[in-house]
Amino acid sequence: MRYVIVSVVKGDAGNFNNNMRKDVYEKFKAKSSKLPAHFTIKSPFEYNDISELEETLNKFSKDNEKAPYIIKGYNHFDNRVIYMDVIMSSQGKKLHDKLIDSLSNIHYVDISERDGKDKIFHITISSKKIQKIYDELWNYVNKFPCNYNCYFDNISIYKWQDNTWILHREYLLK
């Protein structure tokens, strides 16, 4: 089974991202993830029995408190990905790094460089074959103000099923 671990962005910021992704798809046919608004904690991986992961996240969520972050404006990875820029608080960064340490102890969860402690936190708007329309898409997105106060308050496991991501389990931080 294929899984991914994310923190879902909720409230106004999540709604904004979800609506913006629909909007750029309708106007530009620019695709994005089938996941709801989120920042990735661990990119997709394959394994059958994730009970150790579930136990780890259950304990982690009970032992740790949510942390604030800000979403402010937009950024991009070359002309391949456009995203909402996340400014993680020092409290949120410590929480994330502690989570990465916990996940690193699970043998089937391989933490790559882009999943690790030095990742660029971001909430993707569009990432699928946008090079040819990048400039137009970048100019369009930047017409919309993007400034939100959020909380890193959940860790969610999604599984790939029937050609889409389905919520498997959500863990809420204190």
Radius of gyration based on Cα positions: 16 Å
N-to-C SSE string, H for helix and E for strand: EHEHEEHEHEEE
Distance between the termini: 29 Å
SS element count, helices: 4
Report the major sheet. 4 strands, antiparallel
Which structural category fits the helices and strands?
alpha+beta
* Residue runs with pLDDT of under 50 for 5 or more positions: none
The residue-averaged pLDDT reads: 97
Helix content: 25-40%
Residue share in β-strands: 35-45%
Strand order of the largest sheet: 2-1-7-8
What is the molecular shape? globular
Oligomer: single chain
Query: How many E strands?
Result: 8
Description:
The protein is built from 4 helices and 8 strands; from the N terminus they run βαβαββαβαβββ. By secondary structure, it is α+β, with helices and mostly antiparallel strands. It has a domain of 119 residues. A 4-stranded antiparallel sheet has the order 2-1-7-8. It is globular, with a radius of gyration of 16 Å. The two termini are 29 Å apart.
Pick out its properties.
174 residues, alpha+beta, 4-stranded antiparallel β-sheet, 4 helices, 8 strands, 31% helix, globular
Give the topology:
Layout: E1 2-8, H1 11-28, E2 38-46, H2 51-63, E3 67-77, E4 81-88, H3 90-104, E5 122-126, H4 134-141, E6 147-152, E7 154-161, E8 164-172
Antiparallel strand pairs: 1-2, 1-7, 3-4, 3-6, 4-5, 7-8
